[in-house]
Amino acid sequence: MDFDVGEEEFLVILGNSGSGKTTLLRCIAGLESPEEGYIEVGGEVWLDTKRGINLPPQKRGIGFVFQDYALFPNMTVLENILYGMKKRDRVYVIELLKRFGMEALWDKKPDKLSGGQKQRVALLRALVSNPKLLLLDEPLSALDPDLRLNLQKELKDFQKRACITAIMVSHDREEAIRTGDRVVIIQNGKIVEGGKPYKVLTSGQPLLIEKRKDKDRILIILKLDGGFLEVELPKEEL
Amino acid sequence: MEGINYAPIWLTLKLSFWTTLILVVVGIPLAYYLAYTKSRLGLFIETLTTLPLVLPPTVLGFYLLLLLGKHGFIGSLWHRLFDRQLVFHFEGIVLASVIYSLPMMVHPLVSGFRSVSRNIIEVSWTLGKSKLETLIRVILPNAKASVLTGLVLSFAHTVGEFGVVLMVGGNIEGETRVISIAIYDAVEAIDYFTAHVYAILLLAFSFLSLALLYGVNRRWNL
Q1: Which CATH architecture does the domain made up of B7-221 adopt?
Q2: Are residues A150 and A47 in the same domain?
Q3: Lowest CB count within 10 Å: A143, A146, A170, B107, which one?
């Protein structure tokens, strides 16, 4: 498996369960050690099995969001987010929480939060450490469909505002179209296809139902898996 | 009927305190290794750690006597370093108690560490925290019920120790005569009043320790 990720790009790795997508993410994070492989991020070699280089996760500078959010149950929301910061800045974190409408929850433990709130805290915790790479392991899969839709948009906005490179694994094609700048599909540990999400995921079907343009966006409506999907794209996409 | 001698009570508390303290220092890293290792050596060490639980105290005491004696590996080393014997001395019974009560500390810790979600440990590593910092700030607080269980069981188990202490320490007033040995002495001397006092003390202490343990654990689990 061989692929590149551009700076500030949002790459979605799409695959069914057992396809190896989570293992791939864990290898990038340094949580698993592959027998063979090479990973370079921003000119720094994280893994080179030929030269015996394998940086531990602590030294890779990543933000990792797990499917179950993995918030520390013994810490409050504020402490969870502060945990990853090199210089603990409470004022900054409270400001961030305000921006997400969660300032009232700063002293709550994770078991008092809803799924969406947990997801936001996990994302903030991963981002405040200014990671070189944000890794997301199906971070929205445990949420109900409506909330999921909102958070997909929020996640994408957040990534763009933070100017951060992100890799997300998912099994949801709509999610890949909504969030990804690019998608790669893997099956049995191999990349079978890659490219712009709406092109890769809708190829071979009479897909484009409608294309609306207004000032600064293009709205396309696609037929996907028997249903319809609306996707907003920046103008330069088409 | 003799008056009540408080020396065995203080000695027992002193022995339990030192034993528990050493077990915390030794038990946490050992339990961490056992909880997460995949090596076969881990299986061997885990079995070895459990042995004091199933061995008769006299068997354990006998081998400890040989090991800690003047010609034993540890005993001779100690003698060379401190010009003092380990057997029939307080330091000797502390060491014997540490080995005897090791499973009481290590077993709850291992199961507590294993019950902590792997994801929260890994997320701590990805946030740049070392394994030691993750142990202190994430694993131990989330396994606090197991830590408390280990502490209480180790202390209470040492308080009630008899066979190993007798084999290694003998019955020396102020040095190795702990409460359980004092009870044995009193019964031998047909001094049932003294035996009763010591025995009720041990019984009350053990009951209260366990009640405290269950009470706190129930509260934490709510």
Answers
A1: Orthogonal Bundle (1.10)
A2: yes
A3: A146
- Tell me which residue has tokens 């946490």: B28
Picking from B126, B129, B137, the nearest residue to A64 by CB comes out as: B126
The two beta strands, A133-137 and A62-65, are parallel
3-state class (DSSP) for residue A130: coil
Tell me what pLDDT residue A86 has: 83
Quick check: B137 and A29 CB within 8 A?
no
Query: In which residue ranges of chain B is pLDDT below 70?
Result: 1-3, 222
Residue A58 maps to a domain: yes
Q: Mind listing the pLDDT tens digit for each residue in A92-150?
A: 899 888 888 888 999 999 999 988 889 889 989 998 888 989 999 988 887 777 778 87
For A185-206, the pLDDT digits (tens) are 888 877 777 777 777 766 645 4
- Cβ-in-10-Å burial (0-12, 13-18, 19+) of A115 comes to middle
Q: Are residues A166 and A92 located together in one domain of the fold?
A: yes
> What is the residue whose two structure tokens read 């994430």?
B138
Of the CA atoms within 13 Å of residue B124, those in its CB half-sphere come to 21
